[in-house]
Amino acid sequence: MKYIKDQENLSEKIVLLRLDLNVPLKNGMITDQTRIDKILPVINFLIKKKSKILVISHVGRPKGKVDKALSLKPICENLEKKLNQKVSLIKDNILELKRDNLFNDSKEQIIFLENIRFYEQEEKNDTIFSKHLSKLADIFVNDAFSCSHRAHASVSKITEFLPSYAGLQLETEINALKKVTTEIKKPIACIVGGSKISTKISIIKNLIPKFDNIIIVGGMANNILNYLGNPIGKSIREDNCESIIEDIFKTAKNYPCKIIYPEDVVVGKNKEDKAQIKELNEVNNDDLILDIGPRTINKIKNIIENSETILWNGPAGYFENPSFALGSYEIAKKIVEKSKNNLIYSIAGGGDTIAVLNQISVINNFNFVSTAGGAFLEYLEGKELPGIKALN
Questions:
Q1: Which end of the chain is more exposed for a tag (fewer CB within 10 A), N or C?
Q2: pLDDT tens digits for range 286-295
Q3: Do 118 and 62 contact (CB within 8 A), yes or no?
Q4: Angle, to 10 degrees, between the axis of helix 34-48 and the axis of helix 73-83?
């Protein structure tokens, strides 16, 4: 893989830059700017190199049709303020666009093409569409790791027609994930949460041979507790996953990897209730398990204390209610305590995990926080990502 940071001669070159600026919009207003902040390094790098930057990105799922509510206009305006530099948005039909139409003003350095998913050819990974895009630029840079699990025209096929490079953020993301998949510093632990164990089974099975501890929390843990014969009341659980859990324990027996799950829990009658700590055998039929108990928290903190690498994907409970956020907060604080002393390499990923870290303002105390979602999970599963394969 070639990296854009290693390229010298970029002056006056038109760089087709694929970014993930799929930010949440409400009435045309950006409600979370995290993804915009993450692309600033590559934009600033190319500005300094005097490149002409032609940005491709998307918002939402317009399914190949123009949807004004999903325009990139608010993102261009936000970026303009952050960079203190003009950012143009071309709304013309990309299929009719020619290179001669671009950068006619010598002072113009950043142009956005309108939402690439307004074109059905994008998600079809269309060859003709990719070739047309390639004629607009000199080189291609993928700095959208979070889109790299998609075999789309502006992520995958485009690399067949232009010299192609990995961007700064994409390189950072891959290097961080290598530390929990191939370049591991042990002992290593994974904390995995979420509601469905079936969506994480491939990750768990892929990590068992490499990890010392896999800690299962959140709604997923209810399935394990239920499988082991413990009452879980009316807690969230997934149907027909007994064979999945059996598979996890069976796989773990072949490796020195411990599967950790709650030893005590925190319940409420509903999600707005106050917290009540209970032993596993004390859970009533009308109880909802909404967090891990103090004994479980201490056990997890002890594992973190004795780990050199930690991967966290999914909160420990229903953190939206502060009564059930203690498990997630204590895990975060323990990781941060070790991170501050450079005693652990910490990676967090997933929207809910990021929300937890933002709630207690510790997101910057982790070595790496991934906003990649699906690509993050598929990489951990050991899958080959089309966007990464295309750059190799």
A1: C
A2: 999 999 999 9
A3: yes
A4: 60
pLDDT in tens, 259-303: 999 999 999 999 999 999 999 999 999 999 999 999 999 999 999
How does strand 88-90 pair with strand 188-192?
unpaired
Q: What's CA 149's distance to the chain center, in Å?
A: 11
3-state secondary structure of 71: coil
Q: Do domains 4-170 and 179-380 have the same CATH topology?
A: yes
Which has the closest alpha carbon to 311: 211, 194, 244? 211
| Nearest to 366, CA basis, from 304, 273, 280 | 304
**Residues 257, 214: Cα–Cα separation, whole Å:** 7
Angle at 180 between CA 372 and CA 355, to 5 degrees: 40
| pTM, rounded to two decimals | 0.89
Domain 179-380 has CATH 3.40.120.10: no
In one-letter notation, the amino acid at residue 160 is E
**What are 89's two structure tokens?**
């948005």
Q: Which residue has the tokens 């990139």?
A: 72
Fold (topology level) of 4-170: Rossmann fold (3.40.50)
The helix (H) or strand (E) run that includes residue 353 is: helix 351-359
Domain boundaries, the chain: 4-170, 179-380
